[in-house]
Fold each of these.
Amino acid sequence: MSVDTATVKRVARLARIAVDDEDAERMTGELNAILGFVEQLDEVDVSGVEPMTSVIPMEMKKRADAVTDGGKAADVVANAPATEENFFLVPKVVE
Amino acid sequence: MTDLTRLTIAQARKALAAKEFSAVELTDAYLGAIAAANDTFNAYVKVTPDKARDMAKASDARLAKGEGGSLEGIPLGIKDLFGTEGVHTQAASHILDGFEPRYESTVTANLWAEGAVMLGKLNMDEFAMGSSNETSYYGPVVNPWRAKGDDKQLVPGGSSGGSASAVSAWLCAAATATDTGGSIRQPAAFTGTVGIKPTYGRCSRWGIVAFASSLDQAGPIARDVRDCAIMMKAMASVDEKDTTSVDRPVPDYEAALGQSVRGMKIGIPKEYRVEGMPDEIEALWQQGIAWLKDAGAEIVDITLPHTKYALPAYYIVAPAEASSNLARYDGVRYGLRVPGKDITDMYEQTRAAGFGREVKRRIMIGTYVLSAGYYDAYYLKAQKVRTLIKRDFEQVFHAGVDAILTPATPSAAFGIADQEMAADPVKMYLNDIFTVTVNMAGLPGIAVPAGLDSKGLPLGLQLIGKPFDEETLFRTAHVIEQAAGRFSPEKWW
C-alpha cells in the first residue's frame, strides 16, 4: 500500500500537525519508503497466531481503591503555558 | 594527583570509603571536565553544578559517618528523558520548552537514594527517536572516538548518544539511558562502552517520558561490565506506580561477575549474518565465539527464523504507540504553545513547530497504521509477527541455550550528517537490525566492546538472555571483557 499527498494531509489533520504543500509532498515520499519497507510482513503466515498483548506474562496489578495522592492542582498546572487560578487556559471553544 | 574522572565506579567507591578524596572533589573533577569539553561534544543539554555540589556535600557527610549507599558520591549523567524534579526535562524536544517536572522518576529516585550525584541532563535523539543523536533539538552529539589519522566528527549512536559520549569522554562516571529498539546498545557499541537493556518490567518506567510503552526500558551505560552491574542493581526496582513493573526481587548483579561460563550453551543465530555486513564484524563475532569456547562454553548453531521481520514490525508498533503517547503535547499542559486562529489551529501550529522531522514522520506513520481500515492490516499483523519473534527465542531457550551471541551493530560509528542516511530513513533504521528483536520479545540484551576495526573504531558484541536472567549476561559479558580488554578513545580534546 502507498499513500498520496491527499492522504498525507488527512493523516496530518488526524495527528493535529499543520503541514503545507511542500511538507506534504516530502512526507509522502518518506512515508511511502517506510510503508514499502514494512510490506515484507506480507510474506509471513500469521494464521492462527495470537497478537502479542504483553511481552512478559503477567496479571495487571491493581491497587487498593483508596485516595493516595492529590491536592496538587498548583503542581499540575505549574508547567502550563497559560493558566488562571489553577485552570488551564485555552482559546475559546464554545461560541 | 591522578585524574579522578578516569576511575571506574568500583574504584571511586573504594577510594571514597577510604577517604582518599572527597565526593565534592570527585564531583568538581567531573564539573571541570564538563566545563572544558561540553562545547566540543554537546553531550549535556543542562549542567547542574550547584545541585551536584550540594548532593556531593551530603554524600561526604554520610561517608564521614561510615554510612552511604551503593553509589554514594558517584557523579552521574541523566538522559533528558528521565523526569527530574525542578530540573530541565525536555526529551531533547522543542515542544517541551521550559518543562521542569514537579516529580522525580522512579529510576532516578532510586539512584539518589543510593547516594549518587547528578551532574546534569544528557542530550539524546528527540523523544528517543533516532540512531545517531542527530534528531535532537539541541543539535548532534560528537563521539569522542575518531578514525585513525582523520579528524572527521562521528556520531555516538542514538538515541542515548549524550549518555554514551559522556561516559566514553570521562564527563560522568556512568549514565542512565533508555532503549526502545537499540538506544542503549547501539551507542554503547559506537563508543566502546558497556550498555544493558534489561528485561521489560525490570526498571520502572514511571516518570520517564514515554515513546513506545510496550518496548521502552531504562538501563545504564558504563565504562565496564562491573560498573554496569552496579548501576543496574541501583536502577532496578519493583514499583507500584508502574503496572508493568515486575514483582521480583532485584539480584546482586555484581556477584555474577567472575563466575565461570564452563558448560554454558551459547547460541549463534544464522539469521544475524546479514548481507553487506563488513568482514570485520563477522571476524569480531568469530573472535567472540572463540573466547567463549576457550572459557569452556559450548557453542551451538541456532535459528531464529523471524528475525528479518522484527525491524518492519517494529516500524509499525513503535510509531503506533508513539503517535498515541505524543498526543499529550498539545500546547495546553506543558511546554511550547504557538497561537492559532482557534483551538485546533493552536494544536496544529504548536505540534508543527514543536516536533522535529523524525518525530513528525513517526507520528504520521503511527496515525496512519492505526487509522480506520488499516488497523488489522498493519498493527494487528505486526503484533502477530511479534508473537512469532518471541516464540523463536522461547524455542531456543527451551532447547537449553543459556544466552545468544550476536554482533551489536552492523557497522562502526559513521559520520555526522551522513548523506546516505539522511536521504533514506530506512537506511538509518537498519542500524537497529540486531538489537530490535530483543525489544520486540521483551528480553534482556547487553552490548560489550570486543575490539577495534581497521580504522581504530570500537565494535561491540551483543548477548541476549532469558527473561530476568541479566546475571548470565553480566557473567558472560565479563568473560568477553576479560579476553578483549577495555577500550578508551585517545584524548584529542
Amino acid sequence: MTASNKALRAKRILLGGNERRGLLLNIAVYALLIPIAFIFIYPILYMLTTSLMPKEDLLDSYTKWIPSSVYLKNYTDATLTLDYWKSLFKNLQIAILPTIAQTLICSMAGYGFARYKFPLKTMWMGVLLLSFLLPPQLTIMPNYVLFGRLQLTGKIWAFIVPALLGVGFKAALCVLIFYNFHRQIPSSLIEAAEIDGATNLGAYFRIALPLSAPAVVVVVLFSFVWYWNETYLTQVYLGYASSRVGGLTTLMLELGKFQASYESIYSVLEASPNRLNDAIRMAGTMISIVPLLLVYLVLQRQFIESVDKAGITGE
Amino acid sequence: MASKKRARNPHDKHRLSGRRLREWGYGYVFILPWAVGISVFFLYACARSIQYALSDVRLTNGLSITYQGFANFVNIFTTDNTFPVALMSFATGLILRVPIIVAFALIMALLLNSKIRARALFRVVFFLPVIIATGPVMDELTRQGVASVPMVNQATIGALLGTLPQWIGEPIQELFSSLILILWYSGVQILIFIAGLQKVPKDVYEAARIDGASAWESFWKVTLPTVKPMILLNAVYTIVALATSGQNEIITMIYDNMFNSAVRRGYGYAAAMAWAYALVVSAALAVAFLLLRDKSDRKVVYEQRRIVMKGGYYNDGKQ
C-alpha cells in the first residue's frame, strides 16, 4: 500500500466517506450527547444521593455526592409525612378513573370530526383549537362556581364529570390526537364494515376503535401522567381553598405542603434533632415521583414512540 | 353511508340528501358529549369570565355581580405593582425561552436521528422530564439549587453579564440559573422533530448529494424546509406548555387572587388578570405563527416529494 493510499484511508476514517460518517464527527456527536444527557439526569441523581444522606453529610462540605452511610430513615420520615400509601391510593383514583372517561369521549369526538361532515364543523374545530391554546385560568373561576353549585367540589366526580364531557385536563390535545389518527385510517375499511351491515356506532366500536389502539395507548398514558402531575387545577377542584372536603389528595399536592405536614407531625424546635432537612425533603420528592418513574421505565417504548404513532406530524 | 368523497360529488347532491342528513346526525352523535362539555365548561365559562372581569364580584351568600366596566382592567395595571411586572417578565421569558427550547430540541433531534449507539437510552433520558417535571418537584429542585447547569462557573457568567445593560442582563442571568429546568421542557419537542426528520425521504438527500450539495447545504435546503411546519408546531406547543407550567408566577397570582384569603382581591380582579394574560399568550402565539408559517418553503417540500413520487419510490399512502 502506498503512502498516499494510507493517507486517503486515514482521511476516510476520520472525516468519513460517502456512506459513513467519519470518526471525528462521531466523537463530536457523543461529546455533545453524553454531557447533555448527564445534565438532564443530574437533578435526579442529586435527589437520590442527597435523600440517602444522614444530616451530618449535608453540613459537611466535603460530602457532595457519596453519602458517608446509607441513611434510610429519611425515607421512613418522608413516607410518614406524605401519608404515603393512603395518598398513593387516592392519587391512583384521581388518575385512573378520569383517564378512562377522557380517552373514550375524546376518541369518539376525534372520530366524529375525522369521519363525518356536519354543519358548523369548522366552528367546533375552531372552538377545540381555542380551548387548547387559551390558558385554563380563563374558565377556572366560573367552573369553580359551577362545580360548587353542582356539589362536585372535593369529590372524585369533579374529575370524572369533566372527563366524561371531554373537557378533562388537556382534553383538547387528546381530541386532536384522535382526530389526526382517525383521519389517516382509510375510510374504505369503515365503509366495508358498514356494507356488511354494521351500524355507524358498530363500525366505530368494532373497527375504528381497535384500529386506533396506538392513539389510545398514547392518550391513556399521557392522560394518566397529566392527571397524576396536575396540581393547579386539582387544588381548585378539590376545594383546597375553602375547606378540605372529601379528603381526596394527590402525592404532588402532599409534596407541595411537605414542610407544613412535617412540622405538624414532628415537634419542631429550632435546635431539635428532628428538624426538617434537605435529605428528608429529597426523600419525599423521590418517593412521590417513583410511581410514575416505574410506569415510565416499564412502558418507555410506548412513551417514546407515542409521538410517532399518534401521527401528530402527519400532514 | 356517504363517504367524504361521494358527498363532494355534485351529482350525488340531491340523491343523497337523506343520507347526508343522517351523516350530519351521526357526526353530532359522536361529538355530542364533547360538544356539551365544551359549551358549558369552556364557551359558557368564557362568557361568564368576561362578565366577572367587567364586574365587582362578591361572595356574600351566593354570588353578587355588579357591572363596573373596565375598572378591574385599570386596577390590575395601575394599582397592582406586581402583576404588570410579572406579565412583562413572562413575555421576555417567552422571547428568550421559546427559541432556546425549540433550537435545542432540533439539535437534539438531529443528533439522535443520526446513526448512534444507545439511541433508545438517550431518548429515554431526554423524555424523562416530561414524566416527572411537575410544579412541586421543580420547586423542590429549585430550592436545592440543582436547576442550574453544574460546573458552569456562575461567577464568570455573572461578571460577563454585568457588562450588559440590566434589562438584557437580568433575564439572561435568570436563564442560566434555571437552564436545566428550561431544557427539561424540550422532551416532547425532541420527539416531534425526530418524527418529522424520519419523514424526509432518504432519496431527497441522495439526490442532493449527487447534485453536489454538502451536508451543510442539504441541512439548509432539505432538512430545514421539511421540518419547518414542525418548528411552528413546537413553538406553539412550547408557548402553551410554558403558559400553563406550575412554575409560572402569573397563574399563581390568579389563583391567589381567587382563593388566598390573605391577598385576594376577588374573582372579578382575577378574571381581568386571566384575560390580560390570555391576550399576551395569544399575542405570543400570533407572533410565532406569523414568523414561522409556511410561505414559499412549503412548495419546495411538495415539489421535492412530487419529483420523488414521480420516480415511483416514495410511497407515503397519504398524499
